[in-house]
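As the work plan foresaw, our protein records have gained a structure token line. A representative record is set out beneath this paragraph:
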Amino acid sequence: MAAGRPLGRRGLLGWPGLVALAGCGFHPLYASNGAEPGPARTGLGLIQIGLMPERIGQVLHEELETRLDYGDASAAKRFNLSVSFGIEQQALGTQLDTVATRVRFIGRATWTLTTLDARRATVTTGSVRAVDGLNTFDEQYFAQQLETDTVNRRIAGAVADQITADLARWFAKHPA
């Protein structure tokens, strides 16, 4: 998977598979209509991402920015995306001395897309979840901290992928 872009944009089947599926009404989510970008790409480019607290919120904010970076950067934004995001840890494997040997990380996010006009109307909402884990036995403190940061980034990336896909599907059905 290319960094920062949803899998659906590139497709899994390649051009021959897409041509075969076109006959049954399938069309790529991020497809363009000739020279113009499609409704999903256009809509994603109209989203401003709200502030998110804490370091992991900043990481998710960056991940979302790379995925929603469509269209003209100077174009006026019409929607605000607010996201509540957190990651919890669960100790799975424990030794007799109660030292955890495996930790599961569960990232949960709830998001709301609202208009930026005076009404601030809620357009759509959703929630997503991503799970990852790491082994902790015989790890030096700094090595374990680096590995934890890596897992947190993977979870933020997976959550950003899911939010972007949900928003793209919504814009495909409701062109902005």
In short: The longest helix spans residues 141-173. The radius of gyration is 19 Å. The chain has five helices and six strands. The first strand starts at residue 32 and ends at 33.
